[in-house]
C-alpha cells in the first residue's frame, strides 16, 4: 500500500499575449497558462501524477484555488484504492455536494476535478508502464464501462449500450494500435489563422501548412465580414481547392447573425464553422446547423459537461464534436463523450493548442480509434505549434499527422525547469 | 468624483450541517456560507457596497478567490462612472476575455461577477436613498433596457421587444408600488420539508406553516419513493386540500425516472416538481414537462446564465421560472431573465433560503411586479426561516407574505458582528 503524501499546485503563465499568437474574435490577448497539479506519493517507485487546467491568463490563480479545494479528497489516501477504481474516484470528486454547489458540474470546480482526475490517470499509466492511450485501449469493455457515470445520460445512452459499443470495437484493437504506430493520426493546423496576423503572414503560414503535409487548415473569423472574405480568399488562393479550410468564430455571433455571416463565406468551400455562438446554446446551434447546411457546425471545447454534449447530439446541433482535455472532469467524462459521439455517429475532432492540450488530447483520439468508434475516417486532431518544448514528451507531428507517444503517462507532464521558470509570482498579481 | 479605495472579501460560514436544516436528496449536509464582498470608496458619504455569493460550505474560499480576481476592475476606479453606466460595467466584467475562459459565463467566475455587480447596485441604491426595488422600479424603460446585454438572446428577445415590455408596465407603476406596501407579496415556505426531519417534526412544521398563513409549502423528494409517499400523505392530511404542496428533487433523477416517480406522487395534488434532473438539461426537462403534465416543472436556481433560461422557455421545458439572486451575474442578468419570462408568459417564483437569498431576491420580484410583468398572479417567493438575524434588514414575512423593505440598498448587507463572528479561519481549512 502507498499513500498520497503531498499535493503541489503551481500557477504557470506564459506571456503569449505579446506575440498575438492565439488571438481571435473573443480572445484578443491570451496569456497561455496552466493551473498545474503534482500528486506525490510515498511509493518506492517515485512516480508522480501530473495534471493541469489550461487557462488564458488572469484567473489562473482562481483555478489553482479550485484544485487546492480538492486536497481533502487526496491527501493521506490509499493510492491503489483510488487508482484501482477510477469510476468510484470520479464520482467521489464530482458528487462532493458542497463543492458541486459551485457549478454544478461546470466552470472552475469542474475543471479542477478534471485536473485531479487526469493527474491520477497519469500516475496510473506510469505505474502500468504504458502511455495512457494504450492503457485505456487495452482495458476490457467491462472495465471501461465502470469508468463512466451514467447519471443524466440514460435517455441517450445506457450502460448496456455502452458495453455493446466497446465490445463491437474489441475485434481489430491490436491491428488498429499497430496502424497508429505505422501511419499516425490525421492532424489539422490552426497556426495560419489567428486574427492578429497580417495578410502576408497568413499567406506564408498557409503555404507552410501545405508544405508540412496538412490536409486542413483553420481560420479565425467573426471580427469583420470584409476582413474574413479577404483572408479566406487569400487562404483559398494559397492552398488551392484540395486543402480543407475550416472557420472558427469563437462564440462571437447570435443565431441569425451566424447564419447570415456564414452564407457569405460559403463560396470559399468551408469545411466547418466552429463555435458560432454561446457554447450553452443547444437550440441556437441546432437552428444554425439547419441554417448554414451543408457547412457542418463544430463545437465542444467550451461545453461544460457530458449533459451538454448529450443534448447537442440529440438536437442535431453539431456535425463535428470537439472534445477538450481540460474543460470537463477529465478522462472519465471524455470517455462517455466519445461513447455518445459513437452512438450518434458523429466524428470527434478534438480541440487542442494552448498549453499542453495537444499532448493530452491525442491520447483520447487514439482511444476513440482503438476502442470506441474504431475509425479515423473524417477525424483529425487540431495542431498548433506552441509551447510543446515545455513538456517531457512533446507531440510528434509531421507529414500532417500526429504520431503516438510511447512514454508512460498521460502526456501532461511539464518539464520541471519550465514549471519553475514560468511560475507566476503572487506579487505580480493584481 | 470619488474612487474605490478598497475591496474587502470575507469567507463566512455558518455551521448549519449540525442541525440537518437544508438537507435534501443531493445535499445532505450543507454549511450555509457566503463569499462576501465589501466595496469601500473615498466618498464623504461613507457608504459601502455589499454583495456575496451563497455557497454551502467547502469551496467558499474558491468563491472568494473568484471575487478577488475582479479587484483589477474595481480598485482605483471612478465610482460615478461605474454606477452611472451599469450596463457597460456589467459588460466590462463579463467580457474580460481571460476571466471568461474560466466559464464561460458559468460557475465560480460568473457568480463572482454577480457578487460584484450586486455590491455596486447596493452602493447605487444607498446613494439614491432607496431600496433597490424602488430604485429599479422607478427607472425609465430606456434606462432599464440599457442595463441588459442582448448578446445570444436576440433569437428570443430583441432590445425593441424589451422596451415594449417595460413601456407596457409604466401605467400603474405607482399603484403597484403602493399595493406592495399595502398587501405585500405572496410567500411559500420550504421549512417543513427537509429530508433530514422525522415525521413528527414534518407534521408539526406543516401545521405551523398553515397557522402562519402560507398558502403553499414545499417538500424535498427523491431520496426514496416510499418515504416520499408517506411524507406527502402526512403533509396532505395535515394541511388539507386547499394548501398547495410543491415538491423538489434537487436534480436527483434521470429523465424517465423523473416521469415515473412523479406519476406515483400525482395523487397528492402536487403544485410543481422542482429540479427533477440536471439544471443543464433543456431537452430532458422538456421531456419531463410533457411526461408529468399537468404537474408543472419548476427550475432555475442552478441555471448558469441567461442563455440557459432562454432555451428552457423556448423549449417549453419549465412552467415556473425560479431566479436566484447569486447564481447568475447579478441584478442586470436577472432583469433580462425577468424580461424573458414576461415575453414567454411564465411566472417567476424565486429561489430563496440559504444565507441572505430571501433578503436579496425579494427586490427582484417587486421589480417584476412594478416594472416588468405587472402581476403577482401565480407568483410567490420562497421563504425559509434561517439566518435572517444576521442581516441589517432581515426580511419581514408574516401572514404568509413578504413585506417590502424601505431601507436603502440591495438588502444584502450582513451585520459586521455576524461577519466577524462567522468568519472562517484559514487555519480550519483542509
UniProtKB/TrEMBL annotation, chains A, B:
Its EC number is 4.2.1.68. The keyword Oxidoreductase does not apply. Its cofactor is Mg(2+). The keyword Cytoplasm does not apply. Signal peptide: none annotated. Residues 199-295 form the Mandelate racemase/muconate lactonizing enzyme C-terminal domain. It holds the Pfam family MR_MLE_C. It catalyses: L-fuconate = 2-dehydro-3-deoxy-L-fuconate + H2O. SUPFAM superfamilies: Enolase C-terminal domain-like (SSF51604), Enolase N-terminal domain-like (SSF54826). This is L-fuconate dehydratase. It comes from Herbiconiux daphne.
